[in-house]
Every structure is written in structure tokens, then in C-alpha cells.
Amino acid sequence: MSVLWGVSFDATPLSGVVVEFVKIAKIFRSRGWRIHLDLGYDIKADKNSFFRPYTDEADLLPAWVHLDRAEGIDTVPGYDAAAVAAVLRDVVQHEDGDRWRPVVASLAAGLSERIQATWERLGVSLVVVENGTLPENIAYTQALYQAIEEYGTRHRLGRFVLWRDHDLMWQSEPDVAKYGTFPYPHTPQPRNSPFIHYAALHPEALRRTLEWAPHLRNIDVLPNTFTHRPARIDPSNAGFRRDFGIPENAPIIARFTRIIPQKRIDRDIHLLAGLTALTGPAALPAPAGRSRTAPYLFVAGDPAEDPAEHARLVALAATLNVGDRVVFGGPFAPHEQDVGRSAGGGYSIRDLLAHAALVSFMTSRDYESYGNPIGEAIASRVPYITTRYDLYDAVYGHKGFRAPVLDTGAHDLPEGAFLEEVAELLADEGKRTGTAEYNYRLGQRHLGRSRAEKLLNELFPGPTAGPPAAHPPMPGSTRMSVVVPVYNEARALPATLDSLYHQRGADGPLDRSLYEVVLVDNNSTDGTAAVARRFAAEHPDLAIHVVSEPEQGVSCARRTGMAFASARSRGRAVRDDQRFYLVSADADCRVDPDWLWQLLTAMESGKAAIGVCDYYYAPEHFAGRPRLWEVISRTLRCRAVTFALFGGFPDGKGFAVDRDVHDAVGGIEVFYQVRDGQFVNHLSDDWDFGIAVRNSGADIVYVPGSGVEINPRRVDHALDEVISGRAYGSDGIIVMRDIRPLRPAQDRVRDRGGDRDRGQDEARTQAQDRVRDLTEAEAREAWAYSVKDFVPKNTILPVLLTPSLLDDDGVADFFGRSLAERLGRRIEEIKDEMRLIDFAPIHSYKTPSYRLYFEFADEIFARLRATVGPDIGEPPPLPPCLRDVPAQRFAEFVRYYCEDRESGESHNYFGNGGVF
């Protein structure tokens, strides 16, 4: 069973934070998940609950919520309420963190260890953090981040954490600077993590979060939502008034909240007194034929949370002569009917709402961020009154909800026009009914559950979400695993999966037990995984596995998928001599109907370790662009010749590798480089893998019948980079920008710091690129970069890695005997000069390949013209620095040029790879 772990930084058994957690948990409960909740007693120091055992807290929650906490927290040396309070005071409020830094680090390490141990014991699949950005407990915040990173990495989880904030420090009591001053230099900012998706309650909270942490990605608005169901008097709550001593015809003003000073319940007591003075002790007017007594104030909250505040409010009610009409009913169960019953009287907030005439929420201006009581009143079809607290308009007012609103900037207590408006609403039953009905209908549109559920289903889709531990065993009949790395490919993926599903063999549809699909989700945020799971559910005869790779990059995703498939295949019950193949595919390309069959047949009929596919473009896509198509065609013709000679090198768009060879060379290796001060993974993992296999002595075979149609967007949306040789980066950095077409602006969930206009401009530019042809000058430049990329990699590199190929008659005929012999001698000289045993280490082949290109370019191009066609032309011009080098020193300066890794000039000359 999948397990959801919730942790609330609120440290309160019954609060808006806990109620909202229960709403989310209910969605996962319906999928069969097991729900655990840590109330956070061991997090917040000011609630006086540190290490206090749970007693009757479970009575306030649904039976399916298992109250839990991280085991052994109380054994972390030095971790207690006093330490947490001291850190908050010294580090956050006084901004003096040096003394505490090593202490906090030590506490965080111990806490993280115990949090992870608890998750391991339960097998946690999803974590929901509520209010975790409040900096009251820096050590626990850091521990939680550390636990998420280590646990997620260990289990190769994707975004398994929903981190949601209700009361960020700028929304909660900013006037007293409880959490320091902006930009909170000693507060741990939210971290970009491949494991975390952040949620803000409304657009204003999102804006403020990004103002504080502009680096933050993967954040959405996840509003509080409510089940819209009118509250009604029924047999279960018919005795409510009797049990609390409230006359049947007395209007009830309901206040359900924590009894603490910040909630300003004193305003409600003054309101009650003001209504009495306004209407007289006899009561408000009553409907015809009925009598009505003076209104009552009913406060549902725990008096024991702040006994001094409760005593102050009781005394205030007595002073204002309304003490007999103020009822403190104790803690009530939340609004949702199925989340438990209160300990006293067995009533819930919904029962109170069924009897209430109005709901009051006259809170402090700077305390509340959302205001659950207002939403619950709207969803229960009860009118409400409120103060204009900081975010009232952002959440409710600007949406058009109707209510009397006290402007505390003008009046701290209810009086004047506000008091008269409340009195009129209480007196006019028709107006109350009309107001409640209007708000109810508007609330269904803005506050309904469907919006939140849709986002949650996109972020955490399907009933099988969780660690990749429950994949069924691989049957013995399966011979191939097709590995597909994906990142935000929700739109393209259905067509890709459909092409894999409809593979054909020699005599009809390919037996789908012969192969499976392993989709590696690389932190997609567009519902890609949900698309894959939906396709799998609709096509149960094809095994589709969805696994996650949290480290961003196609290289990392391909490595994970290949390793996952290899490990799975080891469990098959088959003969030891039966080969198993790992197959790579790209989510944005289309494979031919017989793609897999052709690969399997070629691999089975020979001894090659890798089968390389034929890659092509659909000519019709380039109709009307003859210059661009001519450059592409020339590149494809060259490739067909050299692939037939040397077998080529694998490209992630499509190749197959023998599993045992894959494992023997160590699988896909990810190489790292530094860009803008950060490590990023290298893009050429497929080529590097082919080099490792070739260097191991294994063969590579070209399978021309196994076709892969390249997505033309790889050219269309990077046309300027293709022409200028920057499609894969520059200055020696091998990366590729995202070439997916931008979604329309209205489809985007969010903007990233004002990028909307720039994104629209880029979309227009891309649209223009898709329809334009190259100029003659651009065509010459594009071909120069394409052929400079092609020749070192496809004609020189194979013989550099395997000089014995030069003894093959076909290879010798291609080069000519004289050139083949001189190439062989020069390779040995360069190898000796560079003190290399071989050229297998990643990228050690670049310098010699580039050197051989410059030394033999004229002769190699002559052979290409003879075998491919005269339109191959002459070698592109030399770099300016080499043009005036004396002939007798040419090879010497070529060496300096190609070995100059600091300037990256040689990488820029060769263009770091063309996309044709």
C-alpha cells in the first residue's frame, strides 16, 4: 500500500492547516493510500507540546488518519523547545546566526536521520509539508530538506513532496517582526529540488514567494477548497440549541477559530453589545407570527490553548452585559462531515453552521492569509461578516463575494455603518437567503474542489504513484526494454507510445510480450507521467513502466532507464545464452512500424553489441525550403555511406545494445562540465557510450531498415543555432536548449518573473523560422558546420578507436590504400605522443580527431566527393589563426589549436555537433 506522510508545522491538533491537509489526504485515501500525520508537536516551541504524547487528538480526525511522529526525535542531543526558541530569538529575530550555525547543522543532521528512518519503516511514497517555510524552527526545516534529498535520491523518486504554505512570514504578524525583516537573511529559503513541488494558497502569496525567492521553480497556486453542501438541521444536530442553552428563535453569530488574541474575538463581543444597543434589549425584529430573542455569539474553539485570553473575553462579555449570550462551546470537529466529531457534545462545525444566521471572521489585519471560516460559510450557504484583513480582497473580495466588511483602518471595533449593515442582515431573512445563495453559486466556481483535485492529479497522478518498487516481474518471453526519457512531453507522448504499441513483425503485429516500455520521467511538470499511466491503463497488453530520475538531464534519465531495465531483465527465467537488448528511443521522435523487429533481427543474426538505426526527416516538412532540405540531404547521404562502412555510433533517438555489454562497460556514463559556475551534465552520453563499447572490442552494426523519423522541431526551433554551429552550446560546453515549441501563453500555469512578453516574442520568432528557407549564405554556413561536425565523428573517430578497421578492404577502398596507411601511422604517432594507452576515456578522442581532420581534410573530402557526390565540395575555410602558419609547422600548430581547452576555439570551430 502506498503511504502518504503529512507533517504540519502548526503543532495544533485542530486548525485550518490540519483541515486542509485532511482534504488533500482524502483524495489519496480514495486511491487506497495509507495516511499518516505528524501534528508537529516536536517542531514549534511556543505551543508547549514538545515531546508530549498524543492523547485524544485522534478523536478530532477521521479514523483513517494515523497520528504519527518521527521516531526518536527526543533522542537528538541538544534538541528541545528551549533550543528552538533560542535559535528563533537569536538567529531569526536578532539576525545573529554565527554562534548557532554549527549547532543548527548538528541538530539538522540528527533530525534528518530519524525522519528518514521513520519513512523507511513505513515505506513512504508521498510527503505533504504544511506551513514548512515558517522559520520558527530552522533546524527542523533544514533537516526536512536534507531528509527529502537523501530519501528521494536513495529511492530514485520524482517530485514526491508537496510543500504548501498557509501563513508565510510576511503574511503572519509582520508588524511584530516575529520572523525577522525582509528579506529574512537567516531564514532558510525554499530550495529548488527535483523532489519538491511548492504550492501557494493564492496568486498574491505566489507573487510574494517569488519576490522573496525569485530562483524558485515548480511552484503553483493550490487554493483552499471546500465541499459545497448547504448545512442543514437534521436529527443528528436537532438538539444543538438545547444542549447549549440557546433559545430556538435567537439568531446565532458563529465564530469558529482558535481562542487567541490575534483572532480578535473581542470584536465579536463588542458586536453583540452594539447590536443589543442598536435594537434594544427586546431583540431584533422577527418574521411575521414568530418571536425572536436577542442574538447569541457562539465561539467554537479550545479555551485551554490560551486560558488568559479566554478569561479576558469572558470578563469583557460580563462588562458589556452580554455574558449570558456568549457561548464558548469548546473545540469542534472541522467543517467536513467525515473528519471526526468533537469530544464535547459530539457536534461539528457543520452542525453549528446549520443553526447559524451569520458567520463572523473579524480577525487581525495582518494575521490570516486565507480565512477558512469564510470559505466554509460560503460552501454551507450561510452569510458571513469580516474585517478587511490583508488578503481578504485578494482571496474573496475581488471575486465579488458579498458581505459586510469592517474597515479596521477607520474603526477598530464594530460601529456606525458596519454595525447597522449587520443588524439589517440579521433582521432581513430574505436578504440573508439571497446573499448566501449568491455567494454559494460564486463559491462553486472559485472555491470548488475540482480545481485543486485537477492540479493534484497532474502532480501526483494515478493509483500506482510512489517508489518504483512494485513493478511486476519480467516474463521470460520479453527480449527488449525500450527506454524513453521524457521531460514535459505530455503533448507529444501519446503519438510516441502509439507508434511503440503498433510495432509490426515479419507477418503482422509484433508480439507485445517480446518487449516492454520503460518511461523515465525527468521532473516533468505538465502531467507527462499521467499521460503514460493513462495510456498503460488503456493498453494493458503492453507493459509500460514509469520510473523517475530526479537529476535533470536526458543523460541521467537514459542511464536510469537502462540500469532499471537491465536489473529487471536479470530476474527472467530463461536460458543463459539468450541475449537481452536495451533499446533507446526519444519521446519526440517517431519510430517506423518495423523498427523493433528490424533491430532484433539484425542483432540476433550477428555478433554486434550495438545496433544503430537509420535516422531521417520527412521531406514534406521542408517543402518550399529547398536550400535547407539540400543541406540536410547531403548530411544524410554522407551518414549512410560511413554508417555502412563503420557501423556508426548510437544516437539516443534509436539504438539497441546487448544488455551484457551494457553492464560490462559500466552502463551509460554521465560526464559533467561547468557552465556559468554550475556543474551540468554532458549531452553526448549516447556517443560516449558507443565509444566505450567500440573500445571494448565489440562491434557496432548499422541497421538501415530500422527507421526513426527525427522531429523537425530540432531544426525548426533552433535554426539560428544550427546555422551558426551553436545548437549544442559553445566554448566547449555541450548542452542543448529546450527545443519544444512554447505553449500558448494562456495555457501556461504561471509566469517566471515577467518572461511572458519575451516568451511570446520567442514563439513568434519560432513560428517564422518554421516557414522560412535559408539564404544562400546561411546554407553555406549551415553545411560548413554540419560537415565539420560529421567528418571527425563519422570518418576519423571509428578508425581512431579501432585502427584495425583500416585493414578492411571496404574501408581501405573508401580511403584509398595510401591514405589508409598514412592514417594508421599517424594515429600511432599521436597516441604515443599523447602518452595514451587508448582513446576510450570520455572526450580524450576530441583532440586527436580534430588534429587528424586538419591534417587530412583535403584528402578525406576528396574521398567523400568520390563516394557520396561532387556536391560535398571542398573543406570549409581554416580558422584564421591557422591560415598563415608555415606548411612545415602546420601539424605543430594544429596540435596547439586543438589542445587549447581554455579558449574553446576548436570546439566553436567544429560547432560542437550539428542537429542534421
From TrEMBL:
PANTHER family reported in the protein's UniProt record: GLYCOSYLTRANSFERASE (PTHR43685), GLYCOSYLTRANSFERASE 2-LIKE DOMAIN-CONTAINING PROTEIN (PTHR43685:SF14)
Source organism of the structure: Actinacidiphila acididurans
Domain of life: Bacteria
Gene3D superfamilies, A to Z: Glycogen Phosphorylase B, Spore Coat Polysaccharide Biosynthesis Protein SpsA, Chain A
Domain Glycosyltransferase 2-like: 481-642
Region (Disordered): 745-769
Protein name: Glycosyltransferase
Pfam families in the cross-refs: Glycos_transf_2
Biological classification of the source: Bacteria, Bacillati, Actinomycetota, Actinomycetes, Kitasatosporales
